Amino acid sequence: MGIRIDQQLIFRGIGRRKVRSKKLMSSVIEQMKRLLKIILLSDHFILYFSILFFLILWPFFPWMASVSNILNVSSNMWPLLALAIGQMFVLIVGGIDLSQTSTMALTSVSGAMIMTTKLDPNQFSNNPLWGLIITEDGGIFSSSPFAVPMAIAVMLLIGALIGFCNGFAVAKFKMASFMVTLVSMMFFSSLAIYLTLSENIMYLPSSFNAIGKSSIGFVSYSFLVTGSLALIAFFILSKTVLGTWFYAVGKNIKTSIVSGVPTERVIIQAYVISGICAAIGSILYSARLEAGRPTLGQNLLLDIIGAVVIGGVSLFGGRGKVLHAIYGVLFFVLLANFLSMMNLSFSVVNVIKGAFILIAALLDVIRTKFLAHQSLA
Amino acid sequence: MIEASKNILEFHNITKSFLGTPALQEITLSVPEGSILGLVGENGAGKSTLMNVLGGVVKPDQGIMKLNDKDYCPKNPSDATRLGIGFIHQELNLFANLSVADNIFIDHFPKISLIQLIDKRKLRKKTSELLKAVNLNISPDVLVGRLSPGHRQLVEIAKGLAAGASIFIFDEPTTSLTESETECLFELIFQLKSEGKTIIYISHILNDILKLADTIAVLKDGKLVRHDNAALLTVKDMISLMTGRKLEQLYPHCNNSVSDEVILEVCSLSQPGIVKDIHLKLYKGQIHGLFGLMGSGRTELARMIFGLDDYSHGQIFLEGVELKYFTPRKAIRKKMAFITENRREDGLLLEAEISTNMSLVALPWYCKARPMNIIKASELSRDLNKTAHLLGIKCASIGKTLVKNLSGGNQQKVIFGKWLIKSPSVFILDEPTKGIDVGSKFEIYNIISNLAKQGTGVLYISSELEELMGICNRITVMAAGRMRGSFDRTEFDKKQILHFAFDDSSLEIA
Predict the structure, then answer these.
(1) Cβ-contact A213, A287 below 8 angstroms
(2) Which terminus of chain B is more exposed, N or C, with fewer CB under 10 A?
(3) Residue B426 pLDDT exceeds 90
């Protein structure tokens, strides 16, 4: 409003007021710039943005606020959040983990092979593992009461092992994380397909499937799992020596070496955490699908990295919080929910998602620049 | 002489503050045309801010500037360049991957009109003329990356000439120059002056200022404390004006008693191409200077002792125990500390807070037992505050201020703090006072001599001989990767030491 009145004054051509109004206008612009800066640099920027996104669309699409849709959005959030938290650790130490989706696929099929209760010989008799660990009666431990815990343990172990391999190659051989994890993405997803000959493994024990579907009252199991994961991640990052070291390595690895930080171990640990998180994501997704799927998570990589970057975790290393991952996933799931309910085609959805990730990456650069400008002070 | 010529540049009541902290307070200063102004002050006194105001990088909150009697308020650096301000930066702003000619004409290539092609022949010819003007005998096509720092500086001056600069600002131009390059630079500065250019010269090396400047302006805490004819000022005057205290001497009294207990011993250490046959004994409470030129192997030796680099032959003993498969981590556990030469590169986490930087080394001592290694936050912050206070780190809050926002002296104190939280028994310092103002230097010498009094063995690497002679108990001279000689404090002989360090004609590289 103030600006409009000032413009009228200018039209009247009153010289002195003209100067004053110009001053006022520039101070208004200055204020807005400052406000923009504060919002941009705020930790909660994406939360505000998500709320705005929701509030703007809500009047036009009232179904967005329906109970079933909100439940849908939240149940989509938790498995993605597990993956995003893992990815965040690797981004903080200055790397990137492209192999998370293939880790999901491999852990999904190997867990399923252990606990499945029944396999169709027509589909699986050509399988390389037929007769070894899988038979017509399902996996080798399917009859044991410990089948589900055992399968989960194996899934977590495989996730950790893949993470260890990635981390070892990056830390010890100083290979580029992009290359290392790209190769392991190709390798392990092919392995998952080879082990199952592209067949889904069905008939998982109902107690396992419950993880993906059931809830205690309003609180779903997947929320409990991911929620505790988020708490643990927060605890590690903010309260432990290891957490401080993750940031230090991402900010300046040379300084970290001179200061006695065991940089190689720290980097390996970040990748192991990412692998374990991928396995947890795999457990939640497999349980929801009630199957071990060799192509699990095939289209998920964009979502994971997109969500984390949108949330404000820096691609340049050294910066990122659990809150960032949560907000990023929230926004991404809201966006995906909206796009899918609009019945848009897969390719259009991906174009829009891609555009948002691009904007987020741009914001990352702008934010870094603002922070650099503060250094002049 | 000065009164006769008119003022080319005038500052009137220039005031600037950052986030409420005043950086400049009512600076009023005039610079006569064709003169050299020496600008001195401690780090953080406002020299750089004043020059950034002049160069259009920041805008003043208050006050006006006049250039050639006309109001001058540059909107951005290129505006300032256009109006005749040539800024020769401390960290050189040249593209290493481009040729000298491309660098000089990067923003105004001579073009063949219409199709906008670069006129290569004209470019080369103009560049040759400019290079001749700065006494630089190189081809315009040489890549800047292949030039020495001294030559790069001259290229930057040529760039200023090409842009038609009438005022040249030099910000610490000699830090990376050799002695002869410095001489060349000074000659060129006098030459520029004789051509009627005006020069503003910023440096911590006060003798250079006295040699060059016609008038000297001393800044302290954002205020101009004195602006006077150079002939009326001495180095001592400047120091006391800058620091606000009388420095009767530049170095603290060296009364640390060296014990006869060897704490660190290096035996015939060799690494092909880097060092050869190094023998060194460091005693408890001793400050042992290591003097040599850049590339003499002194930094590399320090890195080997600290476990950062490998060596092929020889042994290192710490308190009589041989160190094998040594890493910085093990070194820290054995209470060794190491301040590296380049604090921005491997000394600090620039993007992190002061407290994060200071706690990085000592963190393992401040955590509860495994496996979680939870940080004992209150204990840690208590000790951090204590150390920061002890070192006199000036900042708003050690938990909030980012290290990159500190001045050089304060940054170096943060690094000291990092190592001093757990007092070390062996302290290796590589150029700890590089690029630091006089006041902070004195404080750092004090810290070091206090450590020695408490029994820490200090290995002090420096290329400033006066500094070593001021605080060391013993100086070892290195050249071309070998030890050339050692001197006890009573036998310090500047000539002899310099002779050992410079005269490496008889030596082949190790």
Answers:
(1) yes
(2) N
(3) yes
Peptide bond into B424 cis (omega under 30): no
- Distances from the Cα of B374 to the Cα of A244, A249, B368, B380, angstroms: 11, 18, 5, 12
Contacts of A38-43 with CB under 8 Å at 24 or more apart are A40/A363, A40/A366, A40/A367, A40/A370, A41/A367, A41/A370, A41/A371, A43/A312, A43/A321, A43/A323, A43/A324
Contacts of residue B332 in chain A, CB cutoff 8 Å?
Answer: 259-260
**Each residue's pLDDT tens digit, B202-211:** 887 788 888 8
For tokens 């610490």, what's the residue? B172
Confidence of residue A372 (pLDDT cuts 50, 70, 90): low
Q: Chain B contacts of A256, Cβ < 8 Å?
A: 349, 360
Task: Give the separation between CA A283 and CA A152, rounded to whole angstroms.
Answer: 7
Contacts of B360 in chain A (CB under 8 A): 244, 248, 255-256, 259, 261
Whole-structure pTM value: 0.74
CA distance B4 to chain A (A): 38
Q: Which of B21, B328, B364 sits opposite A258 (nearest CB)?
A: B328
> In the structure encoding, which two tokens stand for residue B242, read together?
């800058």
Coil, strand or helix at A128: coil
Q: Which CATH architecture has domain A46-374?
A: Orthogonal Bundle (1.10)
pLDDT at residue number A376: 42
Q: Distance (Å) from the C-alpha of residue A218 to the closest C-alpha of chain B? A: 32
Q: How many residues comprise chain B? A: 510
Sort residue A105 into left (φ over 0), alpha (ψ -120 to 50) or beta: alpha
pLDDT at A5 over 50: no
Answer positive or negative: Cα dihedral of B257, B263, B268, B272.
negative
pLDDT at B137: 83
Chain Cα centroid distance, residue A191? 23
Interface size, chain A vs chain B, as Cβ–Cβ contacts under 8 Å:
88
State chain A's mean pLDDT as an integer: 87
B416 in A contact zone (CB under 8 Å): no
Indicate yes or no: CB of A244 within 8 angstroms of CB of B356.
Answer: yes
Cβ contacts of residue A327 below 8 Å, gap of 6+? Answer: A44, A45, A46, A47, A50, A310, A311, A312
Give B-chain residues touching A251 at CB under 8 angstroms: 349-352
B231 touches chain A (CB under 8 A): no
Q: Do B19 and A239 touch (CB under 8 A)?
A: no
Whether A251 and chain B come into contact, CB under 8 Å, resolves to yes
Domains along chain B with CATH numbers: 7-243 (3.40.50.300), 262-502 (3.40.50.300)
Q: Is A174 on the interface with B (CB under 8 A)?
A: no
Question: How many helices (H) and strands (E) would you count in chain A?
Answer: 16, 4
**Stretch A326-344: mean pLDDT, rounded?**
89
Give the start-to-end residue ranges of the domains of chain A: 46-374
What lies within 8 Å, CB to CB, of A234 at 6+ separation is: A321, A322
Distance separating alpha carbons of residues B60 and B74, to the nearest angstrom: 10
User: Among residues B334, B386, B382, B398, which one has the least CA distance to residue B361?
Assistant: B334
DSSP-assigned states of every residue in A182-234: HHHHHHHHHHHHHHHTT--B----HHHHHHHH-EETTEEHHHHHHHHHHHHHH
Chain A CB within 8 Å of residue B367 CB: yes
Helices A45-57 and A322-341 meet at what angle, rounded to 10? 20
List pLDDT tens digits, range B163-210: 888 899 988 787 767 777 788 888 889 988 998 889 999 887 788 888
**Is residue B459 pLDDT above 80, yes or no?**
yes
Contacts of B58 in chain A (CB under 8 A): 376
SS3 content of chain B, % helix, strand, coil (to 5): 35, 25, 40
Residues of B in contact with A319 (CB under 8 A): 351
